[in-house]
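Repro:
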Amino acid sequence: MSSNTPLLGALISFFFPGLGLLLSKENKFKGVLVFVIAMIADFTSIVVATVLTMCVIGFFIYLAPLFIHFLAAVHSHDVLAKEEKSGKPLVFS
């Protein structure tokens, strides 16, 4: 693996949560599972936020998918950095 693999995995996972783990040797199924769960969570949060736009809380629920995508990117980076012995995880050690 090249030294930019954790960054590439993080970028892929930011736009498609979990799919950055497909670059991993051992976590391919986990990546697809995270992707499916994240897409369900994204769809659900957008529907709920649309219904609740009359309230202030609806606006904040629109931010939930962004938070989910950010966490998926950080997780993918850390998993790939651990597999690559020279890489350093950001959060999850």
